[in-house]
Write a structure and sequence with these properties.
Structural class: alpha+beta
Shape: globular
Largest sheet: 6 strands, mixed
Number of helices: 4
Length: 142
């Protein structure tokens, strides 16, 4: 993955599109939201995996969706160009404080094959391995 910084307008456009999917009256969590709970390389004892973070937070998919709907421009950290998988698509990376822990969130929209509508694909929702300090669009506290 190649890190880049998306413009404010690109991040806002992404958030608007994602929220329109997640808040749609037709939203079906089984169809319109894909969450990568496990990766083959995950160590089952690693507290920083998606699955172990969900267990520690006592979260289910609905909780993750609610946190995604609450993301703002100020939560944006960076973007990652996926130069490995499918065509240089961009993941948007956010950080959110949940129960006094930083949570690293990496998400993007994916197009359904042969269809006009997209779905939300969340590849990361786990405790951050390091404190997240980089928020390019966060307002400085006075």
């Amino acid at each position: 993955m190649i890190p880049i910084q998306s413009s404010k307008s690109n991040v806002c456009d992404f958030l608007e599109k994602m929220k329109s999917i997640l808040e749609s009256v037709d939203f079906d969590i089984r169809r319109d939201f894909i969450f990568q709970r496990y990766r083959v390389i995950d160590d089952p004892d690693d507290e920083y995996t998606n699955e172990n973070t969900l267990l520690a937070l006592d979260y289910d998919m609905e909780d993750v969706v609610e946190d995604l709907k609450a993301l703002t421009l100020e939560d944006y950290r960076e973007s990652m160009v996926d130069n490995v998988a499918d065509g240089f698509n961009v993941f948007f990376v956010f950080g959110k404080r949940i129960r006094k822990r930083d949570v690293y969130i990496k998400v993007r929209l994916k197009q359904r094959a042969g269809m006009a509508n997209s779905y939300v694909f969340c590849i990361s929702f786990h405790f951050a391995r390091q404190t997240i300090n980089l928020y390019p669009y966060r307002k400085k506290k006075a």
